[in-house]
Design a protein that fits this description.
Number of helices of chain A: 14
Structural class of chain B: alpha+beta
Number of strands of chain B: 12
Oligomer: heterodimer
Radius of gyration of chain B: 23 Å
Strand content of chain B: 15-25%
Strand content of chain A: 35-45%
Distance between the termini of chain B: 28 Å
Number of helices of chain B: 9
Order of helices and strands of chain B: HEEHEHEEEEHEEHEHHEEHH
CATH topology of one domain in chain B: Pdz3 Domain
Largest interface: A-B, 46 and 51 residues
Strand order of the largest sheet of chain A: 22-23-24-25-36
Chain lengths: 998, 346
């Protein structure tokens, strides 16, 4: 009758399930994919990044982050904080404006969309009449000035977005007093920039794209000054005292203009082409920062000589005789300067420059000599070289943690010591309960160690395996070798470098033993490295062995890549993980599975040809087993060389296109080159799409047979101390599962510790199981007498786990892509199975044992299988009865790379890539949740004057700074002054607060 | 050459004796032969056991025409496997062999050597517009051989006609199992795979389900060509109770259970113990036993309810070598014959 009870009808179990399982996507780690806009509030000390997919992300102090998503999923073009408010306005590429507010809710702040608005012109007017090109949130916090393509400036009231039509600044009004001659050139075509006067909020500076600039008086609604620029305008910047401003231009020049009270026609003070005399690219943004010693910082984006350095993405900092052009590896989206915004401060005294490039965030310390970069605590570029694999280790012992951090700190000496300058908000999330490491393997042969304990995914240490090998890449061949007198003075900054020198170096599998500090890393060209953590630099020879996985098989020809050449003689390794053994598989195919047993000092590895076991204590190969099927031609020859070369050339041509893309020419694409490339791209995309659509979508229904290719591909390796031969004696064993549904079990004889070096490790094949459904074996697990999974090596020795039950009979769980099967041991008979594919049509992609604790009681926890299917669903399956507990949709099924990149942790969390540069973190557990929880103080509290004297607010803020591009934010103090003088409401408010305080 | 001899109708004796008699009459004592006779419909049917021998004798009126062929050069296809399908134009088909002369010479083995490769099942519980086909896959000698695609079909819903996405058979591989059965055709809509509805599942999901079940694949289709459907008249009262209802899901659980039991046996993994011989992995006693006994009950339940024996499913199994033929299943007129067990199973 049991069968007629539908699963999940047991009310006790149902209740327990609710206490154990819960699905949440908690936080996004890494760098936003395709950022498109940057904003900064010196008041909140928060930075906002908008993306092409319509996301808006706010970052402050480490742990303080907010995320919002525009419904329309349109590109965010501009982000502007409302001065001195917890509000910001975004402009999307569909010309809609959105007002976002930070609100406190349930003890934590939340980012919410409050209003949306699209500017509408009079009926019949062209769309350009209302196409917004520039936004100025006025310091009064009541209005927004919206510059348009038509040259008119509309005024809308906040927060309702009501258009104040009588206050519209038309181009006709602006041009009233300008000479006919100038007017004829349609000088008021497009508003490029609107800037508020730093001292007088009644004056705004309007720059039109043809170079005409006007200073507009809001009180009298008239132009007080106009400036007749001759070059196409890019941007404007006021100097701090409001006596001068700078305009920068399309031809790579910038001009200083005086603003005097007399009525003379102003003439430029200085007009300079910093990288002249040959034609230069546009300077798209400029800052002029005053300092105490009188030598200003002039910071501008672009302006490189068009012919020789036109492809560089640069920002130049000029300070007296010092000049550096920071050279970014990806396009610069925007940047801002953090400088003093104290009302009393006489000078800007810039402290840091924050640059948002397309692929990374770079912060430069402007206070320390040499202008070093600041190590960012978040927004790490995970994809500085493409991620090829990841591995998660939970609950790292403190000792190992400290040693990794100390190794990492030695690598970071070139970073500035400056405290992270963007420090708004307070992180109120509880401290992480344990230390977790996320290891990512990269295409360039590096392994990065990330602190994954909390909300901020933070780089601890970077390990490179390249030094073991001889590669074509010349280590001196980089852009930093430019001599002293090179011009322009380029300096490469940032870590994003997607171009791998040698794809064979790519890391495919990682295994870290957290107790012993042994690390095994395997790569694309069949290389397996075993490493040990060493706190000192060391120079030593790496023992080298070769594992011929084909053994005596004849007539095989490997057409794939060659194996990596090793470096002879001792190699110098920096402190950290240092390799001491290198095993190279022959043929040098990708390593597809890896297992390390730190207690037995054995490492097992598998490729598409077979697997091997290596004793890294004695440095001896124990055995190899070829799993090839004689008819498997594809595996023999390696990846088809023709296909590969086509792929390669495609990639190269893409790179060329990417490189030749001209830097930000915004909407109207001034460079014909850029638009051509774009057009070509569009055409290419279309062709590809068409090709895809033409191909008939049909699937062949064919039973798998033994002759299918890649059946020998070793998918999983597993060490277990279990009853393999008879039920009285248990022994070490190695299990391997292949793509063809075969499981091999080897009985191992590991000598006792005292004779470990003297006697060889022996292995004998004990069993071979062929699953008749022939689906790839993706997981093997042995359950002990209590049906709990066997502990990890050394786990028992470190008292972190109960020793396994060796009395009861053990069970073997084999997980194939299609079924879960439990067999008895040592006599293999099938006990239970769960067929996934036959019933639901989904296949297992990832499977891990996870421990789930109850959120209600501390003493209950159970082990289950966390399973990710090819449909992107996550299922939890109970052990040992293989009952489906719960299912959640997690990843879109089309997101193949997301599904492939997923890793589960031991405690029911997981990570997967949502873009090349971002991990989404999710949790299946009610107990283990890592999500941002933070508070940002609201203006109602802080906008009052007395806050300046009291509270942590001011204590932590040594310098207040002007905002993003200096266009809209003003010094708080300045505002206070203004508020006190002009705004009765604010005065009253202050009074109230003061009285309330008493 | 022709021989004419008499037999006692009331006491025909055993087939062995009859076979010996034939060999004697024809003076071919050591030659293996195939024996066939023409029944009342003019179909050529084999005689190879006591049952059909008795049947043949009882149907003779008064003459029994017997055809004898050497086994080596026998024209196996001459036997009227399509007896039932051609029922309606029986009158026009007086003698079968004429028809077969146009067809390529195909060698099929004797019925006892056959194993089922496909069958139509659950006719009585399915709506007339649907067909549930079971494909048996033995070894790897013959590919399943069909392709499926996405498409859309029109359904009658409470909101009127609606276009819904569906899965269709897009291509049959020539010489493949699917094509050789003749039970599946291009543009047939796939409704279920092994008792699980495919609606709401993607093409890839359905592909994976079919492949995972490929050893014992049961697909329910809505044939594109509805002209060959079973026409049940009221006389088929044994199963007519359900003949008009179209609630597929009601039958689903039965199928699933049935399958599970079925597959336990035909999908046993193989274990090779330390350089020993491969053997099938036995089942651990406790859990599966209860499961199987339950399955048994299910089966019995099902069969009694449906009014026919599970074994009778095999009655329509088609030979592996023959080419596409049209079928009509479980003709009521022949039902009695089936139950006698006298119809030749091919």
């Amino acid at each position: 009758m049991r069968r007629f009870l539908r699963p999940g009808h047991d009310p006790v179990r149902e209740r327990l399930k609710r206490d154990l399982f819960q699905f949440n996507k908690t936080v996004e780690h890494g760098f936003p994919h395709q950022p498109s806009a940057l904003g900064y509030s010196p008041f909140l000390r928060l930075m906002a990044i908008g993306t092409r997919s319509g996301a808006i992300k706010l970052y402050g102090a480490p742990g303080v982050e907010f995320m919002g998503l525009h419904e329309e999923n349109n590109t965010v073009m501009q982000v502007h904080f409302i001065p001195d408010q917890g509000q910001l306005v975004t402009l999307l590429d569909d010309n809609s404006l959105h007002l976002w507010t930070l609100k406190q809710h349930g003890g934590a702040s939340e980012l919410r969309e409050e209003h949306r608005f699209t500017l509408k012109g009079p009926p019949g007017s062209p769309p350009s009449a209302t196409q917004i090109t520039a936004v100025l949130p006025h310091s009064s916090r009541e209005v927004l000035y919206l510059g348009t393509e038509s040259g008119n400036i509309f005024v809308v009231e906040l927060p309702t977005f009501t258009v104040l039509e009588d206050r519209t600044i038309t181009s006709e009004a602006v041009l009233q007093r300008v000479s006919e001659d100038y007017c004829n050139r349609r000088s008021c075509e497009l508003v490029e920039a609107i800037r508020e006067h730093p001292k007088n909020p009644d004056q705004i500076l309007i720059g039109y794209s043809r170079g005409f600039i006007a200073l507009w008086d809001l009180q009298n609604s008239k132009v007080t000054h106009h400036f007749l620029g001759s070059q196409q305008l890019e941007n404007l910047y006021w100097q701090r005292d409001g006596s001068k401003f700078i305009s920068c231009h399309y031809d790579g020049s910038y001009t200083q203009w005086p603003v005097s009270s007399d009525n003379r026609q102003p003439e430029p003070l200085e007009n300079l082409v910093p990288y002249g005399p040959f034609p230069c690219k546009a300077i798209s943004k400029i800052y002029w920062q005053t300092t105490k010693n009188g030598v200003p910082y002039i910071i501008f984006q672009g302006g490189m000589p068009r012919a020789s350095y036109g492809d560089r993405h640069s920002i130049s900092v000029v300070h007296g005789s010092q000049q550096t052009a920071f050279d970014f590896t990806s396009r610069v989206i925007d940047f801002f300067i953090i400088f003093s915004s104290e009302p009393t401060a006489e000078f800007d005294d810039p402290s840091a420059m924050v640059v948002l490039a397309e692929e990374e965030l770079v912060v430069i310390d402007l206070k320390t000599a040499g202008w070093p970069a600041v190590h960012p605590p978040y927004l790490a570029s995970l994809h500085c070289s493409a991620i090829t694999c990841s591995h998660h280790v939970s609950n790292i012992p403190l000792k190992l943690w400290e040693r990794i951090i100390s190794a990492g700190s030695k690598q970071n000496i070139h970073y500035s010591n400056m405290a992270w300058p963007i420090d708004g908000g307070t992180n109120i999330a509880p401290d992480p309960l344990q230390r977790d490491l996320l290891l990512t393997g990269h295409e360039d042969g590096t392994v990065r160690f990330w602190d994954a304990s909390g909300v901020c995914l933070h780089l601890l240490y970077k390990l490179s395996t390249v030094r073991v090998f001889l590669t074509d890449a010349d280590p001196n061949d980089n852009m930093n070798t430019l001599g002293e007198d090179e011009w322009p003075p380029l300096r490469k900054v940032g870590t994003f470098d997607p171009y791998s020198d040698d794809p064979r170096l790519g890391i495919q599998k990682i295994y870290l033993c957290k107790y012993s500090g042994y690390l095994a890393v395997a790569g694309t060209a069949g290389q397996v490295l075993v490493m040990e953590l060493n706190d000192e630099d060391a120079e030593h020879v790496v023992d080298h062995a070769e594992a011929d996985l084909l053994q005596d098989q004849e007539g095989y020809r490997w057409k794939g890549h060659e194996k990596l050449k090793t470096r002879d003689g001792p190699v110098r390794f920096e402190a950290g993980f240092q390799p001491f053994v290198l095993v190279q598989c022959q043929p040098p195919a990708v390593v597809t599975s890896l297992a390390l047993h730190s207690e037995w000092k054995l490492v097992a590895f598998g490729t598409s040809h077979g697997f091997g076991l290596f004793d890294h204590q004695q440095k001896r190969l124990v055995f190899v087993k070829c799993t090839l099927h004689p008819s498997d031609q594809l595996a023999l020859e390696g990846p088809l060389s023709r296909v590969k070369s086509l792929k390669k050339s495609l990639r190269q041509s893409f790179r060329r296109i990417r490189r030749s893309r001209v830097s930000s020419r915004k909407r109207r694409g001034g460079g014909g080159n850029a638009s051509e490339v774009q057009e070509a791209n569009a055409r290419f995309d279309q062709d590809a799409l068409q090709e895809m659509e033409l191909a008939p979508v049909q699937r062949k229904i064919e039973a798998r047979s033994a002759e299918d290719s890649f059946t020998g591909f070793v998918r999983t390796l597993y060490f277990a101390d279990t009853f393999l031969r008879d039920s009285s004696r248990h022994c070490p064993s190695l299990w391997a599962g292949t793509n063809g549904g075969t499981v091999y079990a080897f009985c191992l004889r590991v000598p006792p510790a005292e004779r470990r070096m003297d006697e060889p490790v022996r292995a004998e094949q004990a069993k071979e199981i062929q699953l008749m459904h022939r689906a790839p074996v993706v997981g093997i697990l042995v359950l002990d007498g209590r049906s709990t999974p066997l502990p990890e090596p050394l786990e028992v020795a470190h008292d972190l786990s109960k020793s396994p039950d060796m009395q009861g009979s053990h069970q073997l769980l084999v997980v194939s892509e299609e079924q879960f099967k439990v067999f008895t041991l040592p006599k293999v008979s099938s006990k239970l199975k769960l067929k996934l594919t036959a019933l639901e049509g989904c296949r297992v992609r990832k499977v891990t044992v996870a421990n789930f604790g109850s959120c209600k009681t501390d003493d209950y926890s159970e082990n289950d299988l966390a399973v990710l299917t090819n449909l992107g669903d996550i299922q939890i399956i109970s052990l040992p009865f293989l009952k489906l507990q719960i299912r959640y949709p997690c990843i879109r099924k089309e997101d193949v790379s997301g599904i492939a990149s997923c890793v589960f942790t031991k405690y029911g969390q997981g990570f997967y890539l949502i873009s090349p540069s971002e991990f989404e973190r999710f949790s299946l557990s009610t107990k283990w949740l890592v999500e941002p929880r933070c508070i940002v103080d609201m203006p109602e509290v802080t906008s009052n004057n007395h806050v300046h004297k009291s509270g942590m607010e001011n204590a932590t803020r040594k310098s207040r700074s002007l905002g993003d591009s200096g266009e809209d934010e003003r010094k708080t103090g300045r505002l206070m002054e203004h508020a006190l003088l002009n705004d009765e409401k604010v005065l009253k408010e202050i009074q109230c607060t003061l009285e309330g305080g008493r | 050459e022709f021989r004419r001899f008499s037999l006692e109708r009331s006491k025909p004796g055993k087939f062995e004796e009859f076979y010996g008699l034939l060999q004697h009459v024809h003076k071919i004592p050591n030659v293996d032969v195939l024996v066939g006779y023409t029944d009342i419909h003019g179909d050529l049917l084999p005689i190879n056991n006591d049952d059909n021998y008795h049947k043949a004798v009882s149907t003779a009126n008064p003459l029994l025409r017997i055809f004898i062929q050497r086994k080596e050069d026998a024209d196996y296809s001459a036997f009227g496997t399509d007896t039932m399908t051609r029922k309606k134009n029986v009158l026009s088909n007086v003698l079968r062999p004429d028809n077969h002369k146009k067809k390529p010479h195909i060698v099929i083995s004797m019925p006892q050597d056959f194993r089922p490769v496909s069958s139509i099942i659950d006719v009585d519980i399915l709506p007339e517009t649907h067909r549930r086909v079971r494909l048996y896959k033995y070894g790897t000698d013959k590919p399943l051989g069909f392709y499926i695609r996405d498409g859309s079909s029109v359904r009658v819903t409470p909101h009127g006609l609606e276009k819904v996405p569906g899965i269709f058979i897009s291509r049959l591989v020539p010489g493949g199992l699917a094509q050789s059965t003749g039970l599946l055709a291009v543009n047939d809509e796939v409704l279920e795979v092994n008792g699980i509805e495919v609606s709401g599942k993607s093409l890839d999901q359905v592909t994976d389900m079919m492949i995972a079940n490929s050893r014992n694949l049961i697909i329910t289709v809505r044939p594109a060509n509805q002209r060959n459907n079973v026409v049940r008249n009221s006389r088929t009262s044994g199963s007519s109770g359900q003949s008009t209802e179209s609630s597929l899901p009601s039958s689903t659980p039965n199928i699933a259970n049935f399958l599970q039991g079925e597959e336990e046996s035909d999908e046993e993994d193989i274990i090779i113990e330390e350089s020993g011989e491969p053997q099938q992995i036995p089942k651990a006693a406790p859990t599966s036993e209860s499961l199987e006994s339950l399955t048994q009950i299910e089966l019995l339940h099902e069969s009694t309810q449906n009014g026919f024996l599970p074994s009778s499913e095999m009655s329509l199994n088609h030979s592996a070598g023959s080419i596409s033929m049209e079928y009509e299943v479980r003709d009521p007129d022949h039902k009695s014959l089936e139950e006698d067990g006298t119809i030749i199973t091919l």
